[in-house]
C-alpha cells in the first residue's frame, strides 16, 4: 500500500494550480493566527530538534548518496550547526517577540508607541544542493521563529536529501503550516508564479535574477544568499603551517570547495609563493594522503554536469600548463583531487566565474609585503 501511495504521489503534477492551492491553504492557516503564537513556534522548533536528534543517521546517509560527504563533516556542518541555530532561536524567542517601546513626538502627546514584531505571512524558501539540510532548514528555523507559514523547495540536484526532507517534514512538522515541494524547474516556476510575502533563495546569480523578477511582479521582498570569488591573502608574517591547515579546512574540508564561502583563490607575493606552495602540498598530503581520489575525507563532485564544468576550467589552454599540484580526475566516480594552479591569467575562464570546486589558483603580486 505504501509503495502505491508513493507512486501516486510521484505521478501527481505540481503546476500553477496546485501551487495556488498550496498558498491558499497556508494563507488560511496564517490568517487563523495559529503560527503567531509563542506555543506554536516553540513546538515546531522543538519538533525540528527532535527530528535532527532521531534521524541524524538517515541525514548522513542521504548526504553520502548525494555528495559522498564524510560522516564527520555531515554531522558538524549540516546537523550540529542546525541544532545551534534552533537552540539560539528557542533562547531568544521571547525577546524577539516582545514589543519595543518607541519615542513619540510632542505633536502626538499624550500618546505612547511601540514597535511590534510581526511575521510576513507565507514564505517561500528555495534551497541549494551543496548543503541540502543546513541551507534548507536554517531559513526554516528563522521563518518559524518569526511566526510564518512556509513552503520549502529543496534542490533536485541532491535527490536523496530532497526526498528525505519531504519525508521528515511530513513526519515531524505541522503540515497545515509547513510544506515541502519537490521537483525541478517546472515546480519552481509554478511556485514563483504565486504571490508570496517573502522569498528566500540560496544559489547562483542566474537563478537569483529569475527569482527577483518573479518577486518584483508582486513587490515581494527577497532574501538572496549568492556566491562570489572569495580571495585569501597570504602575507609572509604568519604561522605558515597553521594558516595552510586552516586554508585546507576552509577549501577542501567544506564539501571539497563546493561552498559559497569557500576560498576561491589565493593572493600572495612572488617571493613568498614558493614557501606557500611547498607548505600547502605537504599539508594536503597529511590531510588526504598520496592518492586523494581514494580519500574518504573528501566529498565528490555533485554530478556529471558540474564535473564537466570544472574539467573545462582545468582544460582551458590558458590554465592547463599552470597546474603545480593535483589535477587528477576520475570521471566515473565524479572525483577531482585538490588542485593548485600558479599564476593563472586574470582573463582565463577559472578567474571569470566562481569556481565552486576543488581548484585553487594562486595569484602573485610584485610587492615585497602585502599591505591591507
Please characterize this protein's 3D structure.
One of its GO terms (biological process) is aldehyde metabolic process. Residues 22-367 form the Aldehyde dehydrogenase domain. With 372 residues, the protein is α/β, with parallel strands linked by helices. The protein has two domains: 16-225, Aldehyde Dehydrogenase, Chain A, domain 1, CATH 3.40.605.10; 231-370, Aldehyde Dehydrogenase, Chain A, domain 2 (3-Layer(aba) Sandwich). It has eleven helices and 14 strands. The strands form four sheets. Strands 5-4-3-6-7 form a five-stranded parallel β-sheet, with helices on both faces. The chain has a five-stranded mixed β-sheet with strand order 8-9-14-13-10, with helices on one face. The protein is globular. The model has no long low-confidence stretch (mean pLDDT 94).
CATH homologous superfamily (4th level) name of the largest domain: Aldehyde Dehydrogenase, Chain A, domain 1
Instruction: Please count the beta strands (DSSP E, at least 2 residues each).
Output: 14
User: Helix- and strand-based class?
Assistant: alpha/beta
* Distance between the ends: 65 Å
Give the overall pLDDT as a whole number. 94
| Count of structural domains | 2
Which segments are poorly predicted (pLDDT under 50) over 5 or more consecutive residues?
none
CATH architecture of the largest domain, by name, is 3-Layer(aba) Sandwich
**What is the assembly state of the chains in this entry?**
single chain
Overall helicity:
40-55%
Q: Largest sheet, order of strands side by side?
A: 5-4-3-6-7
Query: Can you tell me the CATH topology of the largest domain?
Result: Aldehyde Dehydrogenase, Chain A, domain 1
**Number of helical stretches of at least 4 residues:** 11
| The top level CATH class name of the largest domain | Alpha Beta
> How much strand content do the residues show?
15-25%
Rg, Å, rounded = 24 Å
Major sheet details: 5 strands, parallel
